[in-house]
Amino acid sequence: MRVSTEALTSPEPAYEISCAVSEFDQPDVPIESLETFRSRLEFPWPGRVHERYLGFLDGVPVGYLNLGLPQLDNLTLANEDVMVLPSARRQGVGRALHALAVERARAAGRETLLGSTVQRHPDGAAFATAVGARAGLEDIRSRLDVRTVDQPLLEAMLAEAWTHAPGYRVVQWQGVPPDEIIDDIAYLEGRLLADAPNGDLPLEPEKVDAERLREGELQRIKQGRVSYNTAALLGDRSVAWTQIVGATDRPDHAWQNTTLVDPEHRGRRLGTVVKLENLRYARELRPALEVIDTFNAASNEHMLRINRAMGFAAVETMITWQVAV
User: Fold this and answer.
1) Mapping DSSP to helix (H, G, I), strand (E, B) and coil, where does residue 4 land?
2) Predicted confidence (pLDDT) per residue in 254-312, tens digit
3) How far is CA 169 from each of CA 166, 194, 216, 236, 240, rounded to the nearest angstrom?
4) Of 101, 112, 167, 202, whose CB neighbour count within 10 A is largest?
């Protein structure tokens, strides 16, 4: 069989491969629409460029590589996402795409490739090991079934959490943060890679300012997604923040994203406050919402404990791998 690669020129083959791989590796995660997939390709996240390639087996596209190259920070890294149809695995397509990723990463002056695999099937871990990668971080995906949440329990949790946070108040919004707190939210976002467990991954904190944050939210809207946000303020300053994001054409599903509390304000249950207030906010504005997924480092027991108390249940683990180029 003949294996070959070439640059992606049309989104449709990559979309079909992505859908098939997702259905096999993570059958419970909703498939995004072709329109959303196209929009993500057309409107990438600020500070990142992408190179995309197809892998062919006897002239038929069966693999897809998305190589992400940070431009503002983490300039020694590249993010590699290799997908191969289950029926075409172990025939050299993944290796060919990985070799191309190594070549392109070197050309861009990068030193390390990062890539993630789900552990539901052994294919991803076997491939990562075969190309010499080593595990750097274990994440747990947890899921909240909004339809069956214990509402009285959540209300009691929120009321109890507020007793530890006298003097604080919340502000809520969709999309771009209000001008008066956007600098605070940018500061919190920039703390993510410094505060969250990163295992052995060589990650550095991102340089986030108001303009980068604003551009990211505007790009998210162009991608067909919407964010629901809640921040806790003391006086006029935002000191805690969380975010839920969902595709506009999949109103039944969303992702719990960032939750951050300024170090000076920890120990006051602000993480619990903003997460529960934001869940209520998202449910009000997204009434068809049924399921929320989230990822947390397996070592982040504090956040996992809050999520479990809310009703999140662990679904699967994901490993982020690293390999020198």
Assistant:
1) strand
2) 999 999 999 999 999 999 999 999 999 999 999 999 999 999 999 999 999 999 999 99
3) 9, 26, 26, 10, 10
4) 101
CB distance 228 to 259 below 8 Å: no
With 0-12 CB in 10 A as exposed, 13-18 as middle and 19+ as buried, what is 154? middle
Q: Where are the alpha helices (DSSP H) in the chain?
A: 11-25, 34-42, 93-107, 123-130, 151-162, 182-190, 192-195, 210-222, 270-285, 301-310
Segments making up each domain of the chain, as ranges: 3-132, 142-318
Band of residue 121 on the pLDDT scale cut at 50, 70, 90: confident
Distance CA 86, CA 20 (A): 8
3-state secondary structure of 314: strand
For the cut 90, the answer to whether the pLDDT of residue 195 exceeds it is: no
140-150 residue pLDDT tens: 999 999 999 99
Neighbours of 229 (CB within 10 A): 26
What CATH number is given for 142-318 in this structure? 3.40.630.30
How much is the average pLDDT of 35-48? 94
Q: How far is CA 243 from CA 83, 102, 258, 278, in A?
A: 28, 34, 6, 7
| 154: pLDDT strictly greater than 90 | yes
Q: Using the 8-state DSSP alphabet, how is residue 298 labeled?
A: T
Q: What is the pLDDT of residue 120?
A: 84
Contact 24, 120 (CB under 8 A): no
45, 73, 188, 267 from 205: Cα distances, Å: 16, 8, 11, 23
Minimal CA–CA distance to 146: which of 301, 286, 28, 258?
286
Q: How confident is the model at residue 194, as a pLDDT?
A: 83
The answer to whether 77 and 110 have CB atoms below 8 angstroms apart is yes
CB atoms within 10 A of CB 259: 25
Q: Which residues pair with 321 in a beta bridge?
A: 115, 135
Domain 3-132 fold: Aminopeptidase (3.40.630)
pTM for this predicted structure: 0.95
